[in-house]
Specification:
Layout lengths: L19 E10 L14 H15 L1 E9 L3 H11 L9 E13 L5 E8 L6 H10 L2 E4 L2 E4 L2 H11 L6 H11 L4 H10 L1 H5 L1 E6 L10 H13 L3 E3 L3 H7 L8 H8 L5 E2 L19 E5 L3 H9 L5 E3 L13 E7 L9 E3 L15 H11 L12 H4 L1 H4 L2 E7 L2 E2 L3 E3 L3
Parallel strand pairs: 1-2, 2-3, 7-8, 8-9
Antiparallel strand pairs: 1-10, 3-4, 4-7, 5-6, 10-11, 12-13, 12-14, 14-15, 14-16
Helix pairs in contact: 4-5
Length: about 400
């Protein structure tokens, strides 16, 4: 008598295919950004409508909601998404806090440093704001924290004529430029924030490249050592930070910067026309689930998980990829009736009894591979009594083959 196999235990997933190339734009401002004049004169409702429409058209999976020194825009967008059911085509919003950090570049600009924070925990906004309050800038013997009320006080301390709180808030944000050592010490002292965030440094004239090598080389290296990634869409920057340039081996980049650095890119949109439209169509594609954990994965595989270009990397032959296994007439033996497979699948893993052998054997059988009916290790042989009449259907690169029946013998 054949031993009955355990039912296939594959659990449904929000992203059943696993890691796939998706468009991420990690640098999108809101009307709440108070440096310059982003989205000048645009009502918040009109901004949300434009963001929602453009994100859907551009097939954006993840947005890095960016504001200077605050979470003001992110907090409002989270309400729109979670409570007002807006931005439904976007899988994830990530808070991106953009700081202006000293020393200044050769153009007289402060460095652009980004802090992206994991939004998974329900109280992450409270924790971020609590940490920001502890980031201080000393002026005239008085420390001012990076929070609304203290930034307003900071602005008014510099200009007593600023009676209006909104004007003082904007001025305080514009003047809040801590030194790199202050930022590093602050992050070292904020355990939760340090463990739940990633640091990105710009590479343009308002970033690392704006610091001349003669005299600032050590500072450049220091900042890159404690940064997790670089904001740049330039192919030459990517080659450099991944150690792909001739004459600069990966070992030298790791020695200099402590690790290889993935390059990500964003539209840096400050108006409707540039939403999700970076220069030269340098779109950012990341191969992962649209989660903060997925973003972390690029640190371990910086060359393979990030791509900057008009299109994501394309497989050479779609016809050789099984995209889906469908099951029917299984008499409830299987917990699900279809299994979607990733284009890059090379192995089936899982705990004992999870259904690894079942997936492999069912795929092999439906492909027409000869089945050894005497094999006691075969899922189909052992479960013949229970699988009789079950239909298995494979979808190969968009082509669906006729279903095959598992017959009791």
């Amino acid at each position: 008598m054949a031993t009955s196999p355990s039912p296939l235990k594959t659990a449904p997933s929000r992203w059943p295919r696993g890691s796939e190339w998706r468009r991420w734009d990690l640098h999108v401002h809101t009307p709440e950004s108070r440096l310059g004049t982003p989205f000048e004169g645009l009502l918040w409702a009109d901004y949300v409508a434009a963001l929602e429409k453009t994100a859907k058209e551009s097939k954006i999976s993840v947005i890095g909601v960016t504001d200077y020194m605050t979470l003001d825009g992110y907090e409002k967008l989270i309400v729109e998404k979670n409570l007002n059911s807006r931005l439904n085509t976007v899988d994830l919003l990530i808070p991106n806090i953009e700081f202006r950090v000293m020393p200044q570049t050769t153009d007289g600009k402060a460095l652009n440093l980004h802090l992206l924070v994991d939004p998974t925990e329900a109280d992450h906004i409270d924790k971020i704001n609590r940490a920001l309050r502890n980031l201080k800038f000393n002026y005239d013997g008085q420390p001012y924290g990076c929070c609304r009320e203290e930034l307003i006080a900071f602005g008014k301390a510099q200009d007593p004529n600023l009676i209006d709180d909104e004007a003082a808030y904007k001025f305080g944000i514009a003047q809040f430029k801590p030194d790199r050592t202050t930022i590093k010490q602050w992050l070292d002292n904020e355990k939760w924030l340090r463990n739940n965030s990633l640091i990105g440094i710009a590479n343009g004239k308002d970033g690392i490249s704006g610091l001349p090598l003669d005299g600032f080389g050590a500072i450049r290296d220091e900042i890159l050592k404690w940064s997790n990634f670089v904001f740049s869409g330039n192919p030459r920057d990517r080659e450099h930070y991944l150690g792909l340039k001739a004459g600069t081996p990966k070992e030298e980049i790791i020695r200099q910067y402590r690790s290889l650095k993935p390059c990500v890119h964003g539209s840096d949109a400050h108006d409707i026309e540039h939403l999700f439209k970076p220069d030269n169509d340098r779109y950012c594609w990341i191969k992962s689930d649209p989660t903060f954990h997925g973003l972390r994965q690029i640190l371990w595989e910086p060359e393979d998980r990030v791509h900057i270009g008009t299109l994501p990397p394309q497989p050479s032959d779609h016809s050789q990829q099984i995209r889906k296994i469908s099951l029917s007439n299984s008499s409830g033996w299987f917990a699900i009736d279809s299994i979607e497979l990733n284009a890059g699948l090379v192995a089936v893993i899982g705990e004992k009894g999870a259904g690894k052998t079942a997936v492999a054997d069912l795929s092999s059988f439906a492909s027409g591979y000869p089945m050894d009916k005497r094999s006691l290790s075969s899922f189909i042989t052992k479960g013949a009594l229970h699988l009789s009449g079950t239909k298995i259907e494979l979808e190969w690169g968009g082509v669906i083959l006729p279903p095959k029946n598992v017959l009791h013998s």
